[in-house]
């Protein structure tokens, strides 16, 4: 029986297994089975902790519910940093991902601030299928058109809309995620600008679908809104699960501030899931 922890950031939830002391046999199929909400524990992302090296306190491997590997997850980054900080007593933790190192600081009031690294704005960085202006993609679906794109460790496209309620996100989200313009698929954000310092966001996550919060999606939303002249470089981003504060610094790095929570802990039998 393997211990696990169920954590979330604003309802964006994770099953966390710890393989820092001993390797665990986690294949993409097994991670997907554990992530299943009916036959497994259930989560938006499956997180496997591995030893940190070369200045990182921990390595965080991220898998979506379909078993595919994700490069970054902002809400999970805060959650994992809080775990390590509790173990070590440190106020700053460096979480390594396949997309790079993410420093996280403990703030007052139970908040954590993660440096999600620089927003990458080139078409090949996103990546897109061919050279084009990432500020205006030739992409549309019923009710939406003309998104901007960037990479926050994952590919993101952001549409700006007058009202989120008018959109059938469950229908247009999958089609946009899998559009041929995105060779690695993409996370699709839908933003309603309430004020220059306040955005409302819903995200169709690559490999996961609609979630209550998406940290990297909130970062991409602020960056793309600021690039379009629709928002300041610091704003509150309201998601279905709550608020994140996002700041796009002058050096290009994007800071994300928000809470973390542990829902419960338990044990699971890995042999009960497909290898």
Question: Main attributes?
Answer:
globular; 2 domains; 275 residues; alpha+beta; Diaminopimelate Epimerase, Chain A, domain 1
Report the major sheet. Answer: 17 strands, mixed
Point out poorly predicted stretches: none
Secondary-structure element string: EEHEEEHEEEEEEEHEEEHEEEE
Structure summary, number of beta strands:
19
Shape field = globular
Can you offer a commentary on this structure?
The chain has 2 domains: 2-117 and 259-272, Diaminopimelate Epimerase, Chain A, domain 1 (Roll); 120-251, Diaminopimelate Epimerase, Chain A, domain 1. The chain has helices at residues 28-35, 74-88, 169-177, 215-227, and strands spanning 2-9, 12-18, 45-51, 58-63, 69-70, 92-97, 100-106, 111-118, 140-141, 144-145, 148-151, 155-160, 187-195, 198-205, 209-210, 234-239, 242-248, 253-259, 261-268. It has 275 residues and is of the alpha+beta class.
């Amino acid at each position: 029986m393997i211990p696990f922890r169920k954590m979330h950031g604003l309802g964006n939830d994770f099953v966390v297994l710890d393989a820092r002391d001993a390797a665990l046999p986690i294949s993409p199929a097994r991670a997907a089975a554990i992530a299943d909400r009916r036959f497994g524990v259930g989560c938006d992302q499956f997180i496997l902790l591995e030893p940190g090296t070369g200045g990182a306190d921990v390595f965080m491997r991220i898998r979506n519910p379909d078993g595919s590997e994700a490069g970054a997850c902002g809400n999970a980054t805060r959650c994992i940093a809080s775990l390590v900080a509790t173990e070590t007593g440190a106020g700053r933790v460096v979480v390594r991902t396949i997309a790079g190192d993410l420093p996280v600081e403990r703030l007052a009031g139970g908040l954590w601030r993660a440096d999600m690294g620089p927003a990458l704005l080139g078409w090949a960085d996103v990546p897109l299928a061919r050279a084009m202006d990432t500020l205006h993609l030739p992409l549309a679906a019923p009710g939406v058109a003309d998104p901007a794109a960037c990479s926050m460790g994952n590919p993101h496209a952001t549409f700006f809309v007058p009202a989120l309620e008018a959109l059938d996100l469950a229908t247009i989200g999958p089609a946009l995620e899998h559009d041929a313009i995105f060779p690695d698929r993409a996370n699709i954000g839908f933003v309603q600008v309430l004020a220059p310092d306040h955005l409302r966001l819903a995200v169709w996550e690559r490999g996961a679908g609609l979630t209550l919060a998406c940290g990297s999606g909130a970062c991409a939303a602020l960056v793309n809104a600021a690039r379009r002249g629709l928002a300041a470089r610091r704003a509150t981003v309201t998601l279905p699960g709550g608020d994140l504060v996002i700041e796009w610094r002058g050096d290009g790095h994007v800071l994300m501030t928000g809470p973390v929570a542990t829902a419960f802990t338990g044990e699971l039998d890995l042999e009960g899931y497909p290898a």
